[in-house]
Amino acid sequence: MNLTDIQAKVEDIFLKVTDIFAIVTDIFLKVTDIFAAIVNK
Questions:
Q1: Distances (CA, A) of 7 to 10, 11, 13, 18
Q2: Is residue 1 predicted with pLDDT exceeding 80?
Q3: N or C: which end of the chain has fewer CB within 10 A?
């Protein structure tokens, strides 16, 4: 395995983690909105 392969794998993993983080952030924001709506009633 050469350095280019390792770099490509690391970048691929990094992109997947970034995608997951974006999804988690989106869910967190939705939950926060729902919680705010409940509290404000």
A1: 5, 6, 10, 16
A2: no
A3: C
